[in-house]
Amino acid sequence: DKKPPDTVRKRKKQENSAVQKFLPIAEIKQDAIILKNGGVRAVLEVGSMNFNLKSEDEQMAILSSYQAFVNTITFPIQIVIRSSKLNVDGYLQDMRNRAEQQSNPLLKENTLEYCAFIERLIDVGEIMEKHFYVVVPVDAPGSKKTSFFQKYMEWLSPADTKAKAQARQRLFEELSKQLTDRVTLIQIGLENIGLSVDRLETKELIKLFYNIYNQELAQRQKVGDPSELKLAGEVL
After folding, report:
1. How confident is the model at residue 232 (pLDDT cuts 50, 70, 90)?
2. Rounded average pLDDT over 145-158
3. Which residue of 37, 43, 170, 200 has the fewest C-beta atoms within 10 A of its own C-beta?
4. Facing residues of 29 across strands?
């Protein structure tokens, strides 16, 4: 009897390919996200501040600085707040390693009990951490807003082509320079408010999208070398 074809593996490959088609990201390089439509994006991670703990004069100064910042922006930006389950695996592993090196049995036992307590606290309490991002865009020349019907038709036939990829490469150098100028403007404006701002580098961007599109897997499999990542649908 002939062995039946491995339809499960074939189907999985087709599903992965389909997932990749419907994602807007074509490539991530030189600290920028390149979209399939030719646009580029930079992502800034922004720190937070406790506004309520500031004095009234400090609050007024912050509001005034924010107003000045908004008035300097001549292009759209996107503000993203991402909540995720607090991950302390690295910290706990470090504590367990220290416990194993303890010569005092009591200190070793107390350290391991502390690690177990933290694990239970995270699992039961569902402690979340928030990250704040500002997405800075530069769209390709000639791009325009599309109607709902146009977006729907693009969704039905999202396949990328070699010609589109070559066009993106030709535009990238020009757009990336404009993107850097915009990033600098945003960084200066936010830092004047008193916030810390860091542009995500290529590896950090890959890690971010890896965690977004592979939430369950990211809890078990930490990001190593981006070239070795196995993403759902091979999206990056």
Report:
1. very low
2. 54
3. 170
4. 32
Q: Do 47 and 132 touch, CB atoms closer than 8 A? A: yes
**8-12, 32-36, 99-103, 198-202: which has the highest mean pLDDT?**
198-202
Buried/exposed 200-235: b ≥16 CB within 10 Å, e otherwise: beeebbbbbbbbebbeeebeeeebeebeebebebeb
| Eight-class DSSP state of 131 | E
Residue 25 tokens read as 């990201």
pLDDT in tens, 60-77: 999 999 999 999 999 999
pLDDT of residue 227: 52
Residue with tokens 């100028």: 181
Both tokens of residue 169? Answer: 């490469």
**Tokens 């693009």 -> residue:** 154
Q: What is the DSSP letter of 53?
A: G
Residues 76, 208, 156, CA angle at the centre, nearest 5°? Answer: 65
Cα–Cα distance for residue pair 121/109, rounded to 1 Å: 18
Kindly state the helix (H) or strand (E) to which residue 234 belongs, with its residue range: none
d(CA 233, CA 217): 13
Backbone angles phi, psi at 2, to 5 degrees: -80, 145
Kindly provide the residue ranges of all beta strands, DSSP E only, lying in the chain, ordered along the sequence: 25-29, 32-35, 40-46, 78-85, 128-138, 197-199
